[in-house]
């Protein structure tokens, strides 16, 4: 289930359209009236194990009756457990895990106009589930996450080139 709570009195709780597939450990991004659900894991009811979600879904806040639609797939190098951020008209993902593999150093950017992923310089350390943001002077900051064995206390910076239009 997806619920929204108004931050102004009377603090209404609004039921939104359900996600296309049950999911946890997702990243939510907001940009220009759209919300993006990036990656995650799905444990389907009554089934053993979990499925790693590489699909990015979006919903338009002003047209919720349309529901969640497929926006894109993540690149194979970082399928799930990614860090994600939106800057300008670009979605950026970092780290994560390829399918059935160790954490990744990869950083990718997608122009929402072109909807194709472009690889950027890698992070120094491979990490899954980092918290990611991009500063106004194009520095990607990735904090924490985990490797194969431990949670990490690292902070990484990637100086990004100009973003594609």
Structural write-up:
With 165 residues, the protein is mainly β. The chain is 0% helix and 40% strand. The protein has strands at 2-5, 13-16, 27-31, 34-38, 41-42, 51-52, 55-60, 69-73, 83-87, 90-94, 107-111, 117-120, 131-134, 139-143, 155-159. A 4-stranded antiparallel β-sheet has the order 3-4-7-8, with no helix packed on it. The N and C termini lie far apart (35 Å).
Features:
15 strands; single chain; 0% helix; globular; 4-stranded antiparallel beta sheet; 165 residues
Give the gist of this structure.
This protein is mostly beta strands and 165 residues long. Helix content is 0%, strand content 40%. The strands form five sheets. The chain has a four-stranded antiparallel β-sheet with strand order 3-4-7-8, with no helix packed on it. A four-stranded antiparallel β-sheet has the order 9-10-11-12, with no helix packed on it. Strands 13-14-15 form a three-stranded antiparallel β-sheet, with no helix packed on it.
